[in-house]
UniProtKB/TrEMBL annotation:
Residues 555-614 form the CBS domain. PROSITE patterns: CBS. One of its GO terms (molecular function) is chloride channel activity. This is Chloride channel protein, CIC family. GO terms for cellular component: chloride channel complex. It is found in: Membrane. Gene3D superfamilies: CBS-domain (3.10.580.10), Clc chloride channel (1.10.3080.10). The chain crosses the membrane at residues 46-65, 86-108, 182-207, 219-236, 256-274, 295-313, 345-367, 379-397, 403-429, 436-456. It is a multi-pass membrane protein. Keywords: CBS domain, Chloride, Chloride channel, Ion channel, Ion transport, Membrane, Transmembrane, Transmembrane helix, Transport. Its main location: membrane. CDD domains: CBS_pair_SF, Voltage_gated_ClC. The lineage of its organism: Bacteria, Pseudomonadati, Bacteroidota, Flavobacteriia, Flavobacteriales.
């Protein structure tokens, strides 16, 4: 055997030992290769490779979903006569929500959590571990809902799908929490980039919404994932499926007053959108119906709205493109308003009603049992606000109104106010319209809308329910780091306890043979009765007189107790309020479980903080 063949043989033996070590004898061939690369490449090199693979996979998922839904919409809205379209608007939206709910109940065992909040919950509460089911469940559910006319967007389901792909990739190759979170964000980034063919907007989405307050120096995987998702979208999707706008006017500084007013209008509309959405969600939750009946009720409401106002059917991007192309008459001609004389007044009334009802259509779609997100609805509403504002200005007597530009920046304004994501909105519209010279009006409108939204409520509606439950935090970097900490990891399982009726001499033996400086006092049922510290025992330790007191006579009530379901941040607050460093943990029956030390939580926090800064 020559030297060359000997080296190859030795390399093969080491390759085999590595996979036996990790128990991967039954792994697929590509998994074996990637495990081998993970052991041979540097950390940064493997993360870049991971970003490429996750980005391509998430991008393909996005392309598949967009193509499927577009094909269904194209058949319904362009290949069918108007009278049959009305029949389809009656049947399909209703069927979409009912079928989605049935699929969730039968196939996915009732697990229907959806929206961007799902990703943030997994980062905060589940160490960025997303169920593998979400790699395909969101595609199935949203394809049925939106494909059959649900008035929601595909971008949130695509983002959740991409996040699940990134998380499961990281789990397969045993990556750390930090790397798992990074690839989770990379998957979501690729999903958004493929949905809009806008890689920079995808990256902004990750940093602005998913990784709020979390410092990542390894941003290259996000970039390559976004590029891969966007490229696949550009290569595989047909031109009419892409989120693209080719008609616009050059920016003129004299039009700044229009943009200032539009920023205020979109901000107020975004607030209306949020309030109505929350009220509809509350209304549906209070209905005393089964989930299937709620789906039937919501589907019936949605079908009625789509019959009256066809632009509410599906995502609505075709309607926005019609605004930018000056083809609004075609929209009205496909509705019951075709029987009225189509003039400017009719158009204004029609668009006002569409704007007012869009949030109802979206909310009933999502909260009654469908699957979708607020990306597309906010963009649709913003484009409609922009066009409506433009034609009202023209009717007042301002002929030189930049109609197309107002439609585009209106989309950014509404999305910024609804999603609390101004940077994502700015780059999304700039990339989608090739309108980089529109950055100034985009920034004006988006920031004004965002500030108005923040003035009404400092927290994004996507996160409000999670924040109210104490499951997620939205501002400080320290709180975001505590996302990865779990209370059960800090409980001292070797804590010492003594019965309340025991003599103090038995307590002396615990002190003598143990290494603890705090003890729990319990009864025969292990119920916590009090605590003792070395300071409480010290007066009795060094006396020559016989001590006849019992443990119950010298024990004291703990200043507070901790429960296993309490969050680390709340526990630290309790430590600060009481001024102590050790507290007992009890279950719902007040049975003693162990002690938690403040120093243990702080040490774990410092270790994670150090990991983020490396």
């Amino acid at each position: 055997m020559n030297i060359h063949h000997k080296k190859k043989y030795l390399s093969f033996l080491k390759f085999k030992r590595d996979f036996q070590k990790y128990g991967l004898e039954k792994a697929r061939s590509y998994e074996l290769i990637l495990h081998w690369l993970n052991n041979r490449l540097s950390r940064n090199q493997f993360l870049v490779l991971s970003g490429i693979l996750v980005g391509c996979t998430a991008g393909l998922a996005g392309v598949l979903l967009k193509s499927l839904v577009h094909s269904i919409h194209h058949f319904i809205t362009t290949k069918v006569h108007f009278e049959y379209q009305i029949l389809f608007y009656v049947v399909f939206p209703f069927l979409g929500i009912v079928l989605t709910t049935s699929i969730v109940l039968t196939i996915f065992k009732g697990q229907d959590r959806k929206g961007i909040g799902v990703i943030l919950y997994e980062i905060a509460q589940n160490s960025s571990i997303v169920s593998s089911v979400k790699m395909y469940s969101q595609i199935v559910q949203s394809a049925v809902t939106v494909g059959l006319g649900g008035s929601a967007g595909l971008e949130s389901p695509i983002a959740v799908t991409g996040a699940a792909i990134g998380s499961n990739f990281a789990q397969t190759y045993r990556l750390s929490y930090k790397e798992r979170t990074l690839l989770l964000a990379a998957g979501a980034t690729a999903g958004i980039a493929s949905a809009f063919n806008a890689p920079i907007a995808g990256i902004m989405f990750a940093f602005e919404i998913l990784l709020t307050g979390v410092v990542f120096t390894d941003f290259i995987p996000l970039v390559v994932a976004a590029v891969c998702g966007s490229l696949l979208s550009r290569i595989l999707l047909q031109e009419d499926v892409l989120f693209r706008f080719y008609t616009r006017e050059a920016f003129n500084y004299r039009n700044v007053p229009y943009y200032l007013i539009l920023g205020i209008v979109t901000g107020l509309y975004a607030r209306y959108f949020v309030i109505i959405s929350q009220k509809v969600e509350h209304f549906i939750k209070t209905l005393k119906m089964s989930r299937l009946r709620k789906a039937m009720f919501g589907g019936a409401v949605l079908s009625l709205l789509c019959v009256l106002f066809p632009p509410l059917f599906g995502e609505g991007y075709e309607t926005v493109k019609a605004f930018t192309n000056g083809d609004v008459h075609r929209i009205i001609e496909n509705s019951l308003f075709r029987y009225f004389e189509i003039g400017n007044f009719t158009i204004i009334i029609f668009l006002i009603l569409v704007l007012l009802l869009k949030v109802f259509a979206t909310s009933f779609t999502i909260f009654s049992g469908g699957n979708g997100g607020n990306f597309a609805p906010s963009l649709f509403a913003g484009g409609t606000v922009g066009y409506l504002f433009a034609i009202i200005c023209q009717q007042i007597g301002f002929p030189e109104v930049p109609v197309t530009n107002l439609v585009l920046v209106g989309m950014a304004g509404a999305m910024s106010g609804v999603m609390y994501a101004p940077l994502t909105a700015i780059f999304l519209i700039a990339e989608s319209s090739f309108g980089y010279d529109l950055f100034i009006p985009l920034m004006i409108v988006s920031i004004i809308s965002y500030l108005i939204a923040k003035w009404f409520s400092p927290i994004s509606p996507e996160l409000k329910s999670l924040a109210d439950q104490g499951k997620i935090f939205t501002n400080k970097h320290d709180k975001n780091i505590l996302f990865s900490l779990r209370t059960e990891d800090f409980i001292d399982q070797y804590s010492q306890a003594i019965n309340e009726n025991s003599p103090i001499t038995e307590l002396f033996e615990l002190v003598k043979n143990g290494n603890k400086n705090i003890f729990a006092v319990v009864n025969n049922d292990k119920t916590l009765r009090g605590i003792l510290t070395l300071d409480d025992i010290r007066p009795y330790l060094f006396t020559n007189d016989e001590v006849s007191v019992s443990v119950s006579q010298i024990m004291k009530t703990p200043p507070a107790v901790i429960h296993p379901e309490d969050q680390p941040l709340a526990i630290l607050q309790t430590f600060d309020d009481t001024g102590v460093w050790n507290l007992p943990v009890v279950d719902t029956q007040n049975r003693f479980i162990g002690f938690i030390s403040k120093s243990t939580i702080l040490m774990s926090y410092r270790q994670i903080l150090k990991g983020y800064s490396e």
